[in-house]
Design a protein that fits this description.
heterodimer, A: mainly alpha, Fusion Protein Consisting Of Minor Coat Protein, Glycine Rich Linker, Tola, And A His Tag, Chain: A, Domain 2, 2 domains, 3-stranded antiparallel beta sheet, 43% helix, B: Rossmann fold, Neuraminidase, 6-stranded mixed beta sheet, 4-stranded antiparallel beta sheet, 31 strands, 15% helix
Chain lengths: 285, 453
């Protein structure tokens, strides 16, 4: 008897669990929020240099950025109905769009929902410089939108958002580095020079104590990017392996000629270079 | 064989002087610069901390011949050198059809521009001439094309039959100058040549040049031979052979063919190997279910016991300085590699990687120990450092076994059996450049000789 009840209970429970499992585990199809593609621009070395270059005599930056931020704040895109208008604007939007949305909310709020119970909401929003916190609550409470009042929401200023992106973004010159090298020799020229020497340097495979084979070489270049004199090896050492390591570094310099990635207008900076060939990272342990 | 050396000395001296002069000049300039007002950041300095290790393109035009009689030999010498350098994996010989300049005089400075355009980084030129006494004179110069200078130059005299060795010696010299490491081309391999059906293999000891040429047989195949090993200082080998009775360890002089048995022990003796000075042989002696290590002095015939464990200690190998011995033992339950002082003492286990580790061999350079790794049912070839760190598998598969180091410790030869029978292979200690060795038939148990010269 007891057995029977026990088994009955057991069966019942099992069935219940199974049922629950079958029902609750039924897979909802995965909701994949379509990932927004990242806008990627391919730019040339030159463009990169231009974007990032600094000029030593540049005036100190004035408060230019401010207008940009304000602009963004005012740019209102909360509503889908506005599409036609939006379409007129430039394609840079996708990236920039996200930021404006939140801040724009405070504005419509007071207008559309004056009668509602949140008079303090906009204040908060304005008080807070960071746009994100205020954004959430307003979003939910603003389902009905008065189409007639759209006009009030529109940003009547000239769209200036192009300023935020593109090659022109930082066209205001900034101060260079302390050494002043960056001002004249762009990072891309340096990188290209390093890349060429790395590609051409074929150090001896037999190196076991790499710290003994760090080779420093002084090179002097003419305006055509070629050596004006044989490279001068500043490091000394002894043994066949040192000679081989030294020769491999010198060979890389010779083979790198002409160093045409260095621009003639910066000649004064690169006419005299000290190159250190350091195998320690390659032959560790 | 090496009679006189021309150039390298004077050249090296010249180079050294030049460098010193440059250094002095540099120092002078430094002083001047320090005194004169220096513009900040006048010297741009950059760091190159990554190189691009790749085979070095080298041009090897045919050696010139003093008379038309040496023309064929000169061409052969060049092809042996080319083959050696190419097989090392560190050089990329350039196709001769691309050459712009035709070398007509090995004493003249080549037109470097012509060699730069085909991107040759090094250029070796040479000449063979027959001397009045019938000997062959071989000379060569090695040029750094981009620096535009000679970096090596030597000459040798030898009997004409020795042209192959001369070629290997020149290849070694080029290898050493351009890689900074000793070469290994002028060396030989002793191995077990296997012929006949699988169940009745005839196994003979055979000897060949490192590049597979000049095979000759040292035993007649009457008995089963195993584990031949070179004496590091003489052209003598030791090996184990099953005759009619117990397996015994033998010594064999490969020049005279003279053979003798090492010690007269009651049980089976196996896994012999020479000490670095060639004066002693270390091996395993079977005693009941156990095997222990013994070392025998070849002159006094005195035998010393090194281990005394209820386990199988075998495959002993000396470190190149003779201070240590690595060996394989199952004292801890499975085959692993242990290291102990050569004079005897406690042994320390060094292999802790996956699987079992057998047949350790110490590199002549001292930096690595190669082993046969048994992982699952796969046999791999690996290396680890003598302190047990840095274990690395170089190649694995169904059956790889019996590693042996080239004299410079950069290349390992081993045998691989894919089913029907074994063949010899070489691989760089970096795990790259795996190559099959040319042998007349199946071959196993290779042992690399020291450099001949």
């Amino acid at each position: 008897m007891q057995m029977r009840t026990a088994s009955a209970i057991s069966t019942g429970l099992h069935v219940a669990v199974l049922l629950w499992a079958t029902l609750s585990f039924t897979g909802e199809t995965f909701q994949v929020t379509p990932a927004q593609s990242l806008p990627v621009d391919l730019i040339s070395e030159k463009q990169f240099s231009e974007m990032t270059k600094g000029i030593k005599e540049a005036p100190k930056p004035v408060e230019k950025p401010k207008p940009l931020v304000e602009k963004k704040a005012d740019e209102v895109k909360p509503v889908e109905d506005l599409k036609p208008k939006i379409a007129k604007k430039k394609e840079i939007k996708p990236a920039a769009e996200k930021v404006p949305e939140p801040q724009s909310q405070p504005k419509p709020d007071p207008i559309a929902q004056k009668l509602k119970q949140h008079p303090d909401q906009p204040k908060q929003a304005k008080a807070q410089p960071t746009p994100l916190p205020p954004k959430r609550p307003p979003m939910r409470k603003q389902p009905k939108f008065d189409a007639d009042k759209i006009a009030a929401l529109l940003d009547k200023r000239q769209p200036m958002r192009t300023l935020a992106t593109g090659v022109e973004a930082n066209d205001a010159p900034t101060l260079g580095t302390a050494l002043g090298n960056a001002a004249a020799l762009s990072q891309s020229e340096l990188d290209a020079l390093r890349a060429r020497l790395m590609a051409l340097w074929n150090p001896p495979v037999g190196i076991q104590d790499p710290q003994d084979y760090v080779i420093r070489i002084r090179i002097r270049l003419g305006r055509n990017g070629r050596l004006t004199a044989p490279p001068v090896v500043l490091t000394s050492g002894r043994g066949q392996l040192f000679d081989t390591a030294r020769d491999s570094a010198v060979r890389a310099v010779y083979r790198g000629q002409p160093f045409d990635m260095l621009k003639p207008e910066h000649y004064e900076v690169w006419k005299d270079i000290e190159v250190t060939f350091d195998p320690r990272d390659m032959f560790r342990g | 064989m090496k009679q006189s050396i021309f150039d390298p000395f004077s050249f090296r001296l010249g180079a050294a002087l030049l460098d010193r002069r440059r250094l002095l000049a540099g120092a002078g300039a430094g002083v001047l610069a320090a005194l004169s007002p220096r513009r900040a950041g006048a010297v741009l300095s950059i760091d190159i901390n990554q190189g691009n290790i790749q085979p070095m393109p080298i041009a090897l035009p045919d050696f010139l011949a003093g008379t038309p009689d040496e023309l064929a030999t000169a061409r052969d010498v060049t092809s042996v050198i080319t083959n050696d350098l190419q097989r090392s994996g560190l050089f990329a010989p350039i196709n001769p059809q691309a050459y712009v300049e035709k070398i007509t005089n090995t004493d003249a400075v080549p037109r470097f521009g012509d060699w730069r355009v085909i991107n040759a980084q090094a250029l070796a030129t040479g000449r063979l001439t027959r001397q009045h006494d019938g000997r062959l004179k071989a000379e060569f110069r090695l040029w750094d094309v981009f620096a535009g200078k000679q970096i090596d130059g030597k000459q040798y005299f030898t009997a004409p039959d020795n042209w192959r060795r001369i070629a290997h010696i020149i290849a070694d010299s080029i290898y050493e100058t351009l890689t900074g490491e000793k070469g290994y081309f002028d060396s030989r391999i002793v191995f077990v040549d296997e012929t006949g059906p699988k169940r009745q293999r005839v196994k003979r000891l055979a000897l060949m040049d490192q590049d597979g040429y000049g095979v000759r047989y040292l035993t007649d195949g009457q008995e089963l031979v195993l584990t031949p090993r070179f004496n590091p200082s003489t052209q003598e080998i030791t090996y184990m052979a099953y005759g009619q009775g117990q397996p015994k360890v033998y010594l064999l002089n490969i020049e005279t063919g003279q053979r003798e048995i090492v010690g007269n022990f009651p049980g089976m003796s196996f896994a012999p190997r020479f000490s670095p000075d060639g004066q002693r042989v270390i091996m395993s002696l079977q005693q009941g279910p156990n095997a222990n290590l013994f070392v025998m002095d070849l002159r006094s015939k005195q035998t010393t016991r090194l281990t005394d464990t209820p386990a199988i200690d075998t495959a002993p190998c000396y470190s190149p300085d003779g201070q240590w011995i690595c060996f394989e033992s199952d004292r801890g339950g499975s085959q692993q590699i242990y290291v102990m002082p050569a004079a005897g003492g406690p042994a320390k286990r060094i292999s802790f990687g996956e699987g079992r580790h057998a047949g350790p061999v110490w590199s002549p350079r001292g930096d690595y120990i190669a082993f046969t790794g048994l992982i699952g049912n796969q046999f791999a070839i690996g290396i680890l450092k003598p302190d047990g760190s840095g274990e690395r598998i170089l190649t694995e598969g169904f059956h790889n076994e019996g590693p042996t180091f080239a004299p410079n410790g950069r290349v390992i030869m081993f045998f691989r059996d894919l089913g029907p029978g074994p063949f010899l292979y070489t691989i760089d200690i970096t795990g790259r450049n795996e190559l099959k060795e040319i042998t007349p038939s199946y071959a196993s148990d290779p042992a690399w000789s020291p450099l001949l010269s």
